[in-house]
Amino acid sequence: MKLFTPGPVEVSPEVLKEISRPVVSHRSQEFREILSDVVEGLTRIFGLDSGNIAVLAGSGTTAVDAMIWSLVSPGDEILALVHGEFGRRAVASAEMRGAKVEVLEAPLGKVVDPELVKERIEEGEYTHLLLVHNETSTGVAYRQLARVAEAAKDRGMLVLVDAVSGLGGEELHMSRWHLDAVASCSHKALASPPGVSFVALSDEAVNGLRGELPPILDLRRYVDFYAGRKETPFTPAVNNLYALRRALELIINMGIDAYVELHRRKASLLYRELPRLGLPPLPDEPVRSNTVTVFRTGDMNAKEVVSLLLERGFRIASGMKDSAKHLIRIGTMGNTSLEDLRELIDLLSEVIEELSRTR
Fold it and tell me: Of the candidates 290, 341, 285, 335, which has an alpha carbon nearest to the alpha carbon of residue 316?
């Protein structure tokens, strides 16, 4: 079975075998060395010149919620950009925290105009800007992030970013773009098994961390433990950190820019070939994600397309919620090649022909 879902992804054998290493105590010197290596690698991937990285056990959602709850207080005024389901989830988390959230939402497959964002920032009294860098539900990459972050910082706002499906596969420079907090995880473009998530924090964000939270969401604890002891406050996914360490090594050895370019090439192949099969891309060309490609299925049921591909040994995903029958999502992340994608395209052609005979 080949995984082409938006996550988790295919993991290379050399990364996967790291999980079989002996378990070590998370209060040992061996663990401190593992965690330090992971943090050093993540610092480079995030483009973080100075700051901290809190390493958690959990999914990308764990990291996003911890980021929001640790940096937002009840009554804070947030401007949120929404391009799909995960943007709406971030808004819901902030509202549950007690924040007042103003939402700018783009039509399906499009992005919020950065000029409109800048206008709202100049007119409002917001404390935070909240957005998803790469929207997993719609395949939209918000490549105007640096522009809107600069406008937010000029007004003294904190910039909080969900980069769960973008980190590693899309260009991101946390320090250069003046981002305060960026949340992500191990099992998307970093091509490691699920189980580890993390939040990178600027120095300003560290100073703004809130307290009096459920311990698992309290990023202050993670920052303090790492700064003081090179440990995590709670038992982490130790063996998954072995795997993540190796995955980060492979990315850095390839070169971060080259790794991003690899994802762009994979996505470009799909964007070029699938419209010839009658599957037009959902997003507009300038904002098409490198890591999650999304296509309309027209009068074909997307779930049937997914099911027939699964019978042929390839797993992709349908759309989310209202889009489940109308969109397919194909991840370009993980240990897959252009040759694998060409095989997938051939199989999609077979599936479409089969479905056309039954209509």
Answer: 341
Q: Domain 256-358 carries which CATH code? A: 3.90.1150.10
Which residues of the chain fall below pLDDT 50?
none
Pairwise CA distance, residues 222 & 52, whole Å:
9
- Alpha-carbon gap, residue 290 to 266, rounded angstroms: 8
Per-residue b or e along 291-308, where b marks 16 or more CB atoms closer than 10 Å to that residue's CB: bbbbbbbeebebebbbeb
Closest C-alpha among 136, 7, 141, 161 to residue 84: 136
Collapsing DSSP states into helix, strand and coil, what is residue 196? strand
Instruction: Specify the CATH number for 13-253; select among 3.60.10.10, 3.40.1160.10, 3.40.50.300, 3.40.640.10.
Output: 3.40.640.10
Cα dihedral value 146, 217, 185, 176, nearest 10: 20
The CA-atom distances, in angstroms, between 340 and each of 12, 167, 269, 350 are 14, 22, 11, 16
Helix (H) or strand (E) segment spanning residue 79: strand 77-82
Taken in order 90, 93, 97, 102, the sign of the CA dihedral is: positive
Check: CB of residue 183 under 8 Å from CB of residue 66.
yes
Q: What is the pTM of this model?
A: 0.97
- How does pLDDT run across 194-203, given as a tens digit for each residue? 999 999 999 9
Q: For residue 12, how many other CB atoms are within 10 A of its CB?
A: 16
Structure tokens at 114: 């950065």
CB 150 within 8 A of CB 132: no
Q: What would the pLDDT profile of 191-243 be if each residue is shown by its tens digit? A: 999 999 999 999 999 999 988 899 999 999 999 999 999 999 999 999 999 99
- Cα separation, 145 vs 97, whole angstroms: 24
Bridge-based pairing of strands 181-185 and 196-201 is antiparallel
